[in-house]
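Why run this: before we spend reagent on co-expression, it is cheaper to look at a predicted model of the complex and decide which construct boundaries make sense. The entries below are exactly what would go into the expression plan.
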Amino acid sequence: MHNLGFALEAAWKVLLAGLILGAGLPALFALGVRSLAYGGGAGEGDSERHPIGTAGGYLCFAIVLLGVVLGITFIVASGFGKAISFEHGYPTISTR
Amino acid sequence: MTIHSVTETTVVLVLVIVTALGFDFTNGFHDTANAMATSIATKALRPKVAVLLSGILNLVGAFLSVEVALTVSNAVVKIQNSNGTPKPDLVADGGAALLLIVLAGLVGGIVWNLVTWLLGLPSSSSHALFGGLIGASVAGLGWAGVNWNGDGSKLDGVIGKVILPAVMSPVIAGVVAAAGTWLIYRITAGVAERFTDNGFRWGQIGSASLVSLAHGTNDAQKTMGVITLALIATGDWTDTKNIPLWVKAACAVAIALGTYLGGWRIIRTLGKGLVEISPPQGLAAESASAAVILTSSHLGFALSTTHVVTGSILGSGVGRPGALVRWAVAGRMVAAWLITLPAAAIVGALMWWIGDGIGGLAGAVVIFVLLLAAAASMYLRSRKAPVDHTNVNDDWDARRELADADR
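The model came back. C-alpha cells follow.
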C-alpha cells in the first residue's frame, strides 16, 4: 500500500496548511471584527470610541486580505504553469 | 478507411463533444452549492446574486486553467499514453473505439449527477466522471484497462487519486472548519451581533468567491481534457501541449451556465439540511474549504470540492457549541459518496455494451438518445416537488424532506 503512505504524507501537510490558512485567517478576521467593534464603542459597558481598536481592526483585515490575494495568485499562477515558492521566506513566482 | 466511416466518426465525435459539455454543465449546477450554499443560507447574498457571482467566477476560473489537463484520465484508466496521446490500438480504427469508451463514460457520469441532484445529494462530480470512465474502460478493455493502484512511484491510480483522498479530505476539512468555528466564537464572544453578523457576511462572500474561482479552475479543465483527447483520437487536433481555444471557451461557458442555473435542491441540503448555519460558521466553513482545496491541489492531492465542502460544513456545526447537526442527512450523503463511483461505473459499462453491441454510429446515437431520455424523465420528476431560488431557504422539516426524496 505505497499509496497510503503517499496519501498520509500529503494529508498531514494539507491539514497543517489548512489549519494555518483555513482556521488562522478566519480567527484573525474575527479578531478584526472584535477590534472594530471595540473601536466603534461596542465594548461591554462603555460606549466610548477607541481609535486604536479601529486601526487594529483594519490591520487584521489587511493581513487577511493579503492571505486571500496570495490564494488568488496561487490559482492564477498554477493555471499558467507557474508555482509559488516560499524558499526565500516570502512568496515568489517561479516556473514549474 | 472509406469516406463513409470518416463521416461516421465525425458524427460520433460531435456527440462526444456535446455530451462532454453536457457533463460540464451538470458539474456546474451540481457544485454551485459547494461555494454558495452557506452564503445563501445565512442570507449574506440573495440566492440569484449568489449564483450569478459564482457563475462569473467559475467562468473566470475556467479561463485561468491554461495548464494542459490532457492527462486527466490517466489517473484512473489506461486509454492514454503518459504524454496525453491516446493508446495506438484504440485509434487504429479512426478513433471510434476510444470515442465509444469516452462517450459511455460521460453518459455514466451525467446520469449519476442527475440522480443525485434529483435526490438533493451533494455527490462528487469528479467521482461520477471517473466512475463512468472506469466502467466504460472495464467493459471495453477488461479489468486491466483500469489504473487501480499506480506504479508505486507516486500517489496514483483509483486508490491513490480517488479513494484515499475521498476518505481523508472531508475529515481534514472538517477538523479545520471546526477549529476555525471554535476560534471565531471564542474571539467574538460578547461582541454585539450587529457588529459580528455584518462583518462575517463580508468574510463569507470573500471566502465563498475564492471557492468558486478554485472550482472553475479545477473542474472545467477535466472536461477540456476529455474533449481534447477525443479530438486527438480522430486526428482533428495534434498538439498535446495545448488545448484548442474554442474547447476552453465552450467548457468555461458550459460550467458557468450550469453554475448560474444553480442546483437548488443541493444548495438546500447543504445550506439548510446539514447544519443550521450562522454567518461565523459560514465564514469558517468556506475558509476551510478554500484553504484545503488550494493547498491540496498544490500538493497534487486530487480531491473533490464536494467532499471538502461537506466536511467543512459538518465541522462548522461540530465546532459551535450547541449547534444543530443533522447526522441522518450526513449519513445519506456519505452513502451517496460511497456508491457514486460504482454506480456511475455500472451505467458507463452498460452504455458501452449497448453501444458496442449495436455498433458504429447507430450504437453511439442510441446511447446518446438513452441519455436524453434519462435526463428528461429526471427533469420531469423534479418538477413534482420543485426547489428554486424562492423556496431554497425554507425551514428544514426532516421528515418531509426525506419522504419527498424517497418518493
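Chain B has 13 helices and no strands. Residues 193-233 of chain B form the longest helix (41 residues). Bring this page to Monday's planning discussion.
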